[in-house]
Design goal:
Number of strands: 2
Oligomer: single chain
Shape: elongated
Order of helices and strands: EEHHHH
Helix content: 40-55%
Distance between the termini: 79 Å
Structural class: mainly alpha
Largest sheet: 2 strands, antiparallel
Radius of gyration: 24 Å
Length: about 100
């Protein structure tokens, strides 16, 4: 099945997110190993984008996109409870002084 956003085909999940948002996903999430300077520049660019009237609905779009992903893939949030080993409490016997 092919997925299109507008006239563009989304080949991967990353493509879909970028086309849906109109900005690269890395702009919002960052990249592994980025320096403090790169992070500051990325966040500055993100603030500029959010200040542009064209992107005034972007936070709402991000929430809507996240909700759609969770709805389509509920297993992303599957939580497996950790089991505790059943330890027996033993009474400590000591010598009374």
């Amino acid at each position: 099945m092919r997925t299109y956003v507008g006239r563009q085909q989304a080949v991967s999940v990353e493509d879909f997110a970028e086309l849906a948002l109109g900005t690269p996903v890395e702009l919002w999430l960052g990249v592994e190993g980025e320096t403090d300077e790169e992070r500051a520049a990325r966040l500055d660019a993100a603030r500029d984008i959010l200040a542009d009237p064209e992107y005034s609905d972007l936070p709402d779009d991000l929430i809507r996109l996240a909700a759609q992903v969770i709805e389509d893939h509920p297993d992303l949030l599957d939580v497996v409870p950790l089991t505790r080993s059943a330890r027996r409490r033993t009474a400590h016997r000591g010598v009374a002084a």
